[in-house]
Design brief:
This protein has 93 residues and is mostly beta strands. The protein has 1 helix and 7 strands. It has one domain.
Amino acid sequence: MEEHKSEKVNLENGETLIIDKQMIYLIYKLNEADIKTLACCCGHGIYPVTCIIDDEGIKRDLFSGIIINRSKGFYVKDKKGRLYLPEVSEEKK
């Protein structure tokens, strides 16, 4: 299992986000291309990589294309406390 490493990223508007290290470049490039990102997770070797984008008002996972029908709280914890996106993941034990 990949160790969970995240990093604080300071945005130009003064906001600070915590993003999985493996996702920082992708999120930077998506935002540079005016693709609004809302949440992401590298999956840490257990779950699929996910990135929630705002696609003209529709929230969807960039990788699977699955629509996410909520505005926040995208990720939930499994029985071991690991975060995952239930629409694209099977819960791991």
